[in-house]
Structure formats: structure tokens, C-alpha cells
């Protein structure tokens, strides 16, 4: 099947599941449904991606449709090794919703050679979902990059503290997510994240105080500390 036929087949499947009730439910969760069909779940998209296979050209064509579900699918079929910095910038500038932001970072961007520098760079940007993407990258790298050392994550903690006063909901939630995930990586980073959380809690900012209180509640909890202690012993 040529790329044009593959694209049309995938779009036809997405259109076939289009559902207005599903679109309305998505909107209630803060998802931008202006370009969404509705009716296709993330597990269904993953099944479609497995059938399609990895294909950088198909991913670009899916993204260019502007359809939410097609763009989600693009993040699942693209080939990370072929993703350029220019593509990351272009796709990041298209982000208009937290779900597409998070899936793009989790499925694709974290696997590229640019993930670490973009996390820092985007954390300073003013566009809400580009900035969110920076902190989402920090969170997912903390979970998935098993080879990274503690020093790299300390740099992320600097960015988290610096940007913790941003009052925008989707930014502050991502900052909080990054702080929590870094603090759950190991005992040393847990201590570092708790220290940063305490410093953030003293900032004259409602957003910063919320980020700190929520993160500290989890990072100092018995289940988290017990799990990290057991991991260190093993």
C-alpha cells in the first residue's frame, strides 16, 4: 500500500468512528475538540499504529491533516531517529491541547536526541503548551531514561524552581508532574526534590505553593519512601 492509500485508509477508519457524544466528553476534560472526530480511544489508536508500522512520511502526512486523532496517531508511527529539531519545533508550535502535548512528548519526543535540550529550552518559552511540553519531557524522561544520572535531573530541578510561579493551569500541573517524577526516581533525587519543594513553597505565588504542597505530599509519603528504599537495597 502506498503512503497516500495508507493515509486515506487510516482517516476513513477514524471518520467511521466519529461520535459527537465522545467529542463532548473530551471537551469536558479540557481537550480542544475543534479538529477532533471523537469515538477513537488511545488503545484503538495504538492498535492502528501497530498495523501501520513505523513510517516517518506517513507520520508527517497524518500530522498535516490537522485532525486531532490523526496527529495522535502520527506520534505513534513516526520514527524517532528521523525526527529533526525543526520538526519538533514545528509540531510543538501546533500544540493546542494538553492531551496532544502529553502524547507527543511521551510517544515520540522523549525518544529523540533532542529531548534533553528541548526540555530545558521549552521550559523558558511563553507559549502555554510549548512550555508545558518542556516540563512533560522532564517528567517522562525521569520515568523512562534509565541511563541518565542524577546531575542531569538537578538541572531540571533548577528549571522547575525557576518557573514554579507560572499561574497557567496546564503549565503548573506539568511543573508539578516533573517535580514528582524526578523525586520518585531514587532516594537521592527524592531528597533533592523535597528540598526544592520546600523552597518553592516559600515563594509568593499561589501556583508555586500548590505545586509544592501537592508534590511534597507524595514525595514524603510512606509508600514512595518505602519503595525507593527497597529499590536501593536491591
Q: Uncertain spans, ≥5 residues at pLDDT below 50? A: none
* Largest sheet: number of strands, sense, barrel closure: none
Choose one word for the global shape. Answer: globular
Overall number of structural domains: 2
Helix content range: over 70%
What oligomerization state is this entry in? single chain
Structural class from helices and strands? mainly alpha
Textual characterization of the structure:
- The protein is mostly helical.
- The chain folds into 2 domains: 1-96, no CATH class; 114-234, Alpha Horseshoe (Serine Threonine Protein Phosphatase 5, Tetratricopeptide repeat).
- 71% of the residues lie in helices and 0% in strands.
- It is built from 14 helices and no strands.
- It has helices at 3-16, 20-28, 42-52, 56-64, 68-77, 85-93, 98-107, 115-122, 128-144, 150-163, 169-183, 187-201, 206-219, 222-233.
- Helix 5 (68-77) packs parallel to helix 7 (98-107).
- The radius of gyration is 19 Å and the shape is globular.
- The model has no long low-confidence stretch (mean pLDDT 96).
Q: TL;DR?
A:
It contains 14 helices and no strands. The protein is mainly alpha-helical.
Give the helix/strand layout.
Layout: H1 3-16, H2 20-28, H3 42-52, H4 56-64, H5 68-77, H6 85-93, H7 98-107, H8 115-122, H9 128-144, H10 150-163, H11 169-183, H12 187-201, H13 206-219, H14 222-233
Helix pairs in contact: 1-4, 3-5, 4-5, 5-7, 7-9, 8-9, 9-11, 10-11, 10-12, 11-12, 11-13, 12-13
Notable features of this structure?
Serine Threonine Protein Phosphatase 5, Tetratricopeptide repeat; 234 residues; mainly alpha
